[in-house]
Amino acid sequence: MSKPVLQIKNLTKTYMLGKRPVQALTNLNLQVNQGEFIAIMGPSGSGKTTLLNMIGCIDKPTSGQILLDGLEVDKMPEKELYKVRRDKMGFVFQTFNLLPYLNARENVELPMEATTKSKAERKKRASELLAMVGLTGRENHRPQRLSAGEQQRVAIARALANNPAFILADEPTGNLDTKNKTEIIKLLAKLNLTNQTTIVMVTHDSQAANQTERMLLLKDGKIVKEKQGLHLAKKNNKCPHCNADITLNDEICPNCKKPILETEEPFI
Ligand code: ADP
Ligand code: MG
Q1: CATH number at residue 118
Q2: Is residue 66 in some structural domain?
């Protein structure tokens, strides 16, 4: 049985726009288990980024409770929250947010600077992480000499630097072409399977959402729909279409011959 690693209870976030309150999240409840890969979808302005910011301890809720790995983060002061962000969270953004004057390896080393690791250890780990995301040989390239897909791989390696409990990804494929989109989702799914990292991904892409374990639809600050994704069956070594036994490396089901991570049924 997986244990809940994130519990959100009656979460409300109200921003003030001048004197006008904007209710971004309303009494939202969500539980995510250790090692889950979930997708959050929803129209622009539905509260997706606000929700990720609350989970990532970037901003505080107006009311409600957030338990992260048993920590009541909504009650913690900022001087403790930065440690939660540093030690438990890896962030991936639509625009990659790499530092242009650092090379790939130095970008990945950056979050480790606040830790006890020596310079040599940081360098070694950064190279290992870049290998894990398929960028061996690209360590010394600066972002401008990398393609968009490669830059997002560097950003994912950076997110993994301190071995976080969570990866929070806000539209990670939003700036990528179809081929790179598919590759990045595959990479996240692989990391989820091999490292058991819990991943919460915001996406506009129904196809990408389907390749996670569970999809949530947000509307006006509330979760209005939920559905299982194809990654769940894959995790259990079963074809989501015909339930035949498959292995983790299968992309086409050996029994029904359908692509395992594709479906005709859109979530929204
Ligand atoms: P999404 O990521 O789904 O597009 P957001 O979480 O960014 O939605 O925004 C949800 C709502 O909160 C929107 O109405 C948005 O305009 C509002 N909002 C977001 N951030 C702020 C802010 N800092 N100040 C005021 N209103 C905000
Ligand atoms: Mg957003």
Answers
A1: 3.40.50.300
A2: no
82 Cβ inside 6 Å of ligand 1: no
Six token digits for residue 53: 């910011």
Residue 252 lies in a domain: yes
The pLDDT score that the predictor gives to residue 48 is 97
Substitution site in 41, 50, 204 for ligand 1 pocket (most atoms within 8 Å of beta carbon): 50
Q: 111 lies in a domain?
A: yes
Averages of pLDDT over runs of 10 residues in the chain (268 residues) are 90 96 97 97 96 96 95 94 92 97 98 92 97 96 97 97 95 94 94 94 94 97 96 92 92 94 87
Whose alpha carbon is nearest atom 21 of ligand 1? 15
| Cα 17 from chain centre | 29
User: In a 3-state reduction of DSSP, which class is residue 54?
Assistant: helix
Residues 105 and 159 in one domain: yes
Output the CA 48–ligand 2 centroid distance in Å. Answer: 5
pLDDT tens sequence across 87-107: 899 999 999 999 999 999 999
Q: 212: Cβ below 6 Å to ligand 1?
A: no
Ligand 1 atom closest to residue 221's alpha carbon, by position in its atom list: 10
The total domain count for the chain is 2
Per-residue model confidence (pLDDT) at position 249: 86
**CB neighbours of residue 237 within 10 Å:** 12
251 Cβ contact partners less than 8 Å away, ≥ 6 residues apart: 259, 260, 261
Q: Whole domain around residue 242: which residue ranges?
A: 237-261
If asked whether residues 213 and 246 sit together in one domain, one would say no
Residue 125, token pair as written in the block: 């780990």
> So what's the pLDDT on residue 42?
96
> Does 255 fall in a domain?
yes
